[in-house]
Amino acid sequence: MKALWIDATNGAAGDMLLAALLDAGADIAVVRQGLDRLPMEPATLGISEVRRHGLRAARVSVEAQVSPHSRNLADILGIISAAGLPDLVRRFAADVFGLLAQAEARVHSVSAAEVGFHEVGAIDSIVDIIGCGLALHALDLLPPGPNVVSPVAVGSGSVSTAHGRMPVPTPAVLQILTEAGAPLYAHPAGMELCTPTGAALLAVLASAWGPVPACTPLALGMGAGRADPAGHANVVRVLVAELTGPANWAVSEMCRIDATIDDLDPRLWPDVLDALHAAGAADAWCTPALMRKGRPGQVLSVLAAASLLDTMCQVVFSCTSTLGVRVSAVQRRSLRRDEVEVLVAGSRVSVKRGWLAERLVTVQPEYADVQAAARDHGRPVAEVLAEAQRVARGTANEPGGDQERER
Predict the structure, then answer these.
(1) pTM (2 decimals)?
(2) Same domain, 345 and 259
(3) Which of 243, 275, 290 is the endpoint of a domain?
(4) 52, 122, 235, 407: which has the fewest Cβ within 10 Å?
(5) Left if phi > 0, otherwise alpha if psi is -120 to 50, otherwise beta: which for 46?
(6) Could you tell me the residue range of the domain that residue 201 belongs to?
(7) 402, pLDDT greater than 80
(8) Residue in 118, 135, 105 with CA at minimum distance from that of residue 24
(9) Are residues 88 and 204 both part of a single domain?
(10) Residue 118 confidence (pLDDT)
(11) CA distances from 33 to 73, 83, 376 (A)
(12) Are 138 and 6 found together in one domain?
């Protein structure tokens, strides 16, 4: 199985990752053709060879006129949607920009729709993100895939932004990497090593964080940043490889939070679970329990990334009557997954699929979509459910394949 390992121990930025992917063999002509379809100001993508700390690396440049537009998320998603890009590229780019918008919204306490992208909305950043999607697609490495990212170096000091001077790592970078559960790497460089765009690209790409997996290397790429500091090689390395070890699932370290409760109005439990999911829980559930003196109760259990432990505890304490919780470390193994939209009698139904190595083993249509399609066309829910599963299986020539995909 083909996989990607990204060495971000010297940081990451959008242009560095794009240069590394092109250096690893992605066809720049294909990337340029995709970028030429973007309905915005013309931009020319160039590539050259440079040296960073004595090492050869690729360096990309973007030539474009200064944009008169201050774009928000809706503007950028409109550009992506209108470009006629491959479905996987369109979804990847939308995920990266969506993650950036959510992080900025959280940091500045506004809605994602209100976020003005400033630097991220500039043409070169749009080229970096969509260019990475096109390059990954050319290398057959777009999610869902067993892509592993090393610990991320973030740097220190301060940097000038549209909001003024910001500490490094910037709040948006920390927000993105914290929510992704990324391990951070202590680096002596007194400069910004990981940009918000770089952090968002890594977070969307990573199915796991850590060292090089057991693999047979196929291609290596090195992408350089603008600066050439004396203390370290300012490069991102990518390794395209064929996995030789187990690749049937992703392994992640998580926390489980449990609380045993017998005095909460039972009508509130659905709201408690909804609040936990909204806060980022990977899963949340209740198990009936018999309490002291024969009282019926519930054991509330929450599964979440370690970075969200305090957030989950706050939700549990705020939404329930418990005075304490139990926390334990657990390991989760999860199937690689993707999501497609299929047409059932003219209605769109979203379907989640799980892959065991190269084999499709789980196909689960979104039940609300199935109900709506059944209601709209006067058909039994079970019949629409079965048809959505059949169509979704029929599109599965390969993990993440585009064939017949509507989304």
Answers:
(1) 0.66
(2) no
(3) 243
(4) 407
(5) beta
(6) 2-243
(7) no
(8) 135
(9) yes
(10) 55
(11) 23, 11, 40
(12) yes
Are β-strands 148-149 and 2-7 bridged in parallel, bridged antiparallel, or unpaired?
Answer: parallel
Smallest Cα–Cα separation from 61: which of 212, 220, 226?
Answer: 226
Distance (Å, rounded) from C-alpha 193 to C-alpha 191?
A: 6
Q: What is the amino acid identity at position 145?
A: G
Kindly give the interhelix angle for 269-278 and 309-319, rounded to the nearest 10 degrees.
Answer: 160
Residue pair 316/300 in contact by the 8 Å Cβ criterion: yes
Same domain, 104 and 201: yes
Per-residue pLDDT reduced to its tens digit, 246-286: 556 777 778 999 999 999 999 999 999 999 999 989 999 99
Eight-class DSSP state of 9: B
- Domain end (from 217, 243, 269): 243
CA separation (Å) from 166 to 81, 163, 169, 188? 33, 8, 8, 18
How remote is the C-alpha of 318 from its chain's centroid?
29
Q: Give the phi and the psi of residue 392 in degrees, each rounded to 5.
A: -65, -35
User: Are residue 203 and residue 238 in the same domain, yes or no?
Assistant: yes
What is the CATH number for 342? 3.10.20.300
pLDDT (0 to 100) of residue 407? 28
> Could you tell me if 407 and 373 are in contact, meaning their C-beta atoms sit under 8 angstroms apart?
no
- Express each pLDDT in 8-56 by its tens digit: 999 999 999 999 999 999 999 999 999 999 999 889 999 999 999 889 9
Identify whether residues 171 and 320 lie together within a single domain. no
Query: Do the beta carbons of residue 84 and residue 39 sit within 8 Å?
Result: no
Strand ranges (E), 227-325: 235-243, 250-261, 283-290, 296-305
| DSSP helix, strand, coil percent of the chain (3-state; round to 5) | 35, 35, 30
How many whole angstroms separate alpha carbon 104 and alpha carbon 266?
37
Strand stretches in 53-173, DSSP E: 55-64, 148-149, 152-153, 158-161, 164-167
Give the DSSP letter of residue 360: E
Assigned token pair, 230 = 């004396």
* Cα 138 to Cα 13: distance, rounded to the nearest angstrom: 20
Angle at 352 between CA 349 and CA 357, to 5 degrees: 145
Asked, for residue 406, whether it belongs to a domain, the answer is no
The reply to whether 344 and 326 lie within a common domain is: no
Q: If you count them, how many residues does the chain have?
A: 407
